[in-house]
Amino acid sequence: MRFVPIERVEHGMMLAKSIYDYETRTLLREGKLLSDEIIVRIRERGYPGIYIEDELTKDVVIQDTITAELRNHAVEALQELDLEEAVNVAESIVKQLMEAKTISLDMLDLRTFDDYTFRHSVNVAVLSVVIGMGMGYTNEELVDLCSAAVFHDLGKISIDKAILNKPGKLTPEENELLRSHSQRSYDMLKEKWNIPARVKAAVLSHHENEDGSGYPNGLTGDKIHPFAKIIHVADVYDALSSDRAYKKAYTYSESLEYLMGGCGTLFDQQVVRAFMDKVPVYPKGVTVLLSDGREAIVVENHLGSPLRPTVRFFDGTDLNLNDSSVGMNITIINQVNTQTIDEQEMIEFEKERKSREIKTILVVDDMVTSIRSVKAALDGLYKIIAVRSGSEAIEYLQKATPDLILMDILMPNMSGIEAVRVIRQRFPGNIPVIFLSSASDVQTILECKDVKAADYIVKPFKVNYIRERVAAVLGENE
Length: 478
Known about the structure:
- Residues 360-474 form the Response regulatory domain.
- It comes from Maccoyibacter intestinihominis.
- By secondary structure, this protein is an alpha/beta fold.
- The chain has 4 domains: 2-57, Molybdopterin biosynthesis moea protein, domain 2, CATH 3.90.105; 68-278, Hypothetical protein af1432 (Orthogonal Bundle); 287-335; 343-473, 3-Layer(aba) Sandwich (Rossmann fold), CATH 3.40.50.
- Helix content is 41%, strand content 14%.
- The protein has helices at 36-44, 68-79, 83-99, 116-134, 139-151, 161-164, 172-179, 181-189, 197-205, 226-240, 252-261, 269-278, 343-354, 368-378, 390-397, 416-426, 442-450, 463-473, and strands at residues 2-5, 14-15, 19-20, 26-28, 49-53, 287-290, 295-302, 305-313, 318-320, 332-335, 360-364, 383-387, 404-408, 433-437, 455-458.
- The strands form 4 sheets. Strands 9-8-7-6-10 form a 5-stranded antiparallel β-sheet, with no helix packed on it. A 5-stranded parallel β-sheet has the order 12-11-13-14-15, with helices on both faces.
- Strand 6 and strand 7 form a beta hairpin.
- Helix 3 packs across helix 5 (139-151).
- It is globular.
- It starts with a strand and ends in a 5-residue tail after the last helix.
């Protein structure tokens, strides 16, 4: 089977996985042949895509991490605010994951806006348990961790859906209300004598950041409960990779980049490392774009090489990107995602950006092709100054101060990290730096955080993605 984005679903395709509504009722059963009318109904309900069975991928088996029945049962318990049953569900989730011979995290959870909060909580619970297993937690610890993850967003039930799904920018009052959900979740649990204190602590603190910039209490480092750190990573990853009324979904690779870029400031580095060891970047069945321009379907992932799975082309031939004979000349550019930003939306985005004072970005990269890619993405929105080395960047900074530096890492004579260390010593003002690099190992990420990098983007990048990250660092996002 394989996953097909809704825009690519065609008449006559066969459904491989049943689709449920927000009340966990079966809308369409697996094996159903899709008509044009059914496809329209699926699209109108807001589903991002479906799994189909076809000859090309009939040998590709994608298993649920937990059974669909258990997932639906968890949603029902949350909808009915049956906290006792939700704890029983948490125990069942841990039991299924512990009994699994191999844990598969390849199945995409198909959600609509209506059931997002409940299914998101279940996804976060599953991801949290998998991370906890990777960190060596006991069965009792895993059950409490899973319970906390199931409960982490309970407080959103008391917040108006119009605010939760608001497509535009929240007012300060609305934002404050939304940020209150972790406290509200805790308040719903604090008098429950049968719920352990560490479950309540994790629920309260799941939006705390390592550097103290989180909420509700601005806790730092070791003051944050370990369960909360795990739920924080799982929560952000699932939220980023989901379509919402106010944003398009990041691909899984982009969501992982965000986690890596936040190591040490937003997220605990050990938790992110455990996450990277367990969660595939490109789930089986998704279509990806390769660096040679071809599209292919991921058919197998390889432990320890999350960026280089085995893929299948549409002529039926397979290519193991982890095979040393392939080398590094073919890579995955990104997951194919047809949920692109509307053209008019992008026109308005650029019009608004151009109406502001033009900011200057210094791009430091020894590769002409990389500089061209950055210019293609950002030129017209910002003034782009490009130099080819760290020493040239330092020379430029003696004359002018940019608003942002986009710095490559792997450069001759002086690496990007070394260049930033010099810049931090010689030039006051702490100019924000975003590193751009094809390297994505944890050690490199940590070295970037050590020089106070504002963000980290893995090459190659998509135009809309780098625009979003740059705008965020410059304080231009909502």
